[in-house]
Amino acid sequence: MKELRKINPVEFLATFNADMEAAISSSVNDISDVTFINGSYSLNVISLSYGEDLICEFVKMHLVSLNEYCSTKSMDDTMMNELARQIVAQYGYINQFELCLFFARLKSGRYCEFYGSVDPLKIMSSLNKFLEERKDDLSKMEARKNMEQVRMQRDNPRAISYNDWIKLHPEDEKLLKSCGFG
Amino acid sequence: MKDYSIPSDVLHREIFRKHPERIAWLVKLLDVCNEDGVIEMSYQEVANMLVTTKGSATKFLSHFIQSGNGAETDGKRIVLCVSNSYVSCGNASETMRKRKEDEKKPKRVSKKTKETTLFARVRAAFEDFVKEHFEEAYYWTPKDAVACNRLIKEITFSRANRPNPLPVDDEGILEGFTSYINSINDKWVLEHFSMAIITQSFQQIRQQISLQNGKSITTETPKQFLIKRQKQSIVDKVSEIELRWKQSQGEGAEED
User: Fold this and answer.
1) Which residues of B touch A79 (CB under 8 A)?
2) What is the C-alpha separation between A128 and A90, in angstroms, rounded?
3) B234–A61: do the CB atoms touch at under 8 Å?
């Protein structure tokens, strides 16, 4: 957090502006790729470092870009302020990279289409879909890590089976049985 | 001998409108005829009659009828001939021949060509505008043609009836039309952009423009304006945050 406070808020917003959306989207396949990336801070952490205003402005910056992107009727200031506050309050655990990725995917029409106007409710439901994808990606990542660990243990030339180990350490068998193992 | 013809419906209309000063052109014509030696005494009398009865259109008409128009006057070879279509000054036979020739010819060809040209130019300007701004070709219907003619008339009227009147020639009207369509920034009109709609909304949009009062007229749509304002609001707010951040950084450094 101390490191984050050293960054000028204007520089921070300039780095993670709408151009970043496309850059992240093109270089990332799974959401889990950016969840634990270096230099990522959750919206809550950013809010604690700079205050709630900045993080709301950060979200609004992306919402304005979305407004500009869509040919439909734009959201007005009140709707946008309320939506930014909702996102920060409910989904403060996602980081700035994930938020950029969400807006990039939203613009690609992955979650919904806007008819008539840019609808805050549709954005929120899209964000929910995005977070479900995030959950799946994180589960997959976790499963991959576990599989990797199992494979590493299995392929270890020094590893032995439980039966072989008991044969080597018969004195421990009773202790293990008393503890409910074996 | 020269022959001078004036459409009689114009004369009749002007007289019945009771604007005697408008018949001055007839007096002028008769004067020109006189200078050319075409007109004789009887015409001079008519001219005098016009001048003397200038104050009253109905008086002039009654004098005119009493003088036995359409026939030779005082046995002179020059007559003032009034028919349904023309008031002619000149030799009787020549006038009649000329009138017959004129009736055979299609009437007011030049005026129609002029109108078509202006109409075509306005239509081309409109289609170019649609292509440029909406990236689509405009399907022109007869309804649009009617609306276009009406719009030309409205533009002509509005240009002529200003404190500082603007030229109402083809170029002027075309310029007026172009600046009018470029100044439309009403969201609804832009969403339903057609010749009929912009003609219907002419007064309303003109009032909007006059309310802008000196501000430069741009083609910025309400959406663009809203986004520009939203961006500006974010920039302003972030500047405030930056100022606060700088102050807190300064305080942090002093504490260190």
Assistant:
1) none
2) 10
3) yes
**How buried is A94 (Cβ within 10 angstroms: 0-12 exposed, 13-18 middle, 19+ buried)?**
buried
Closest CA to A35 of A106, A94, A103: A94
Cβ separation of B237 and A53 shorter than 8 Å?
yes
CB contact at 8 A, B96 and B5:
no
Mutate to test the interface with A, among B238, B240, B249, B255 (most CBs of A within 10 A): B238
Please report where in the chains the tokens 């101390």 appear, as a residue. A2
Q: What is the sign of the dihedral through the CA atoms of B142, B143, B144 and B149?
A: positive
Partners of B237 on chain A (C-beta within 8 Å) are: 53, 57
- Tell me the C-alpha distance between B136 and B114, whole Å: 29
User: What pLDDT band is residue B8 in, cutting at 50, 70 and 90?
Assistant: low
Across the strands, what pairs with B6? B87
Question: What does the alpha-carbon distance between residue A38 and residue A48 come to, in Å, rounded to a whole number?
Answer: 19
Q: What is the DSSP letter of A71?
A: S
Residue type, position A114, single letter: F
CB atoms within 10 A of CB A172: 13
Q: Whole-prediction pTM value?
A: 0.48
Write out pLDDT tens, residues B105-143.
655 555 555 446 788 889 988 988 888 888 888 888 888
Measured in angstroms, the CA of A52 and the nearest CA of chain B are apart by 10
Could you give the CA distance from residue B141 to residue B132 in angstroms, rounded to a whole number?
A: 20
Q: Is B88 helix (H, G, I), strand (E, B) or coil?
A: strand
CB contact under 8 A, B238 and A10: yes
Interface of A with B in 37-76 (CB under 8 A): 50-51, 53-54, 57, 60-61, 64, 67-68, 73-74, 76
Q: How confident is the model at residue B201 (pLDDT cuts 50, 70, 90)?
A: confident
Is A18 at the interface with chain B, CB within 8 A?
no
Amino acid at B191: E
Task: Tell me the helices (H) and strands (E) count for chain A, helix number first.
Answer: 11, 0
Judged by CB atoms closer than 8 Å, whether chains meet at A10 and B242 is answered as yes
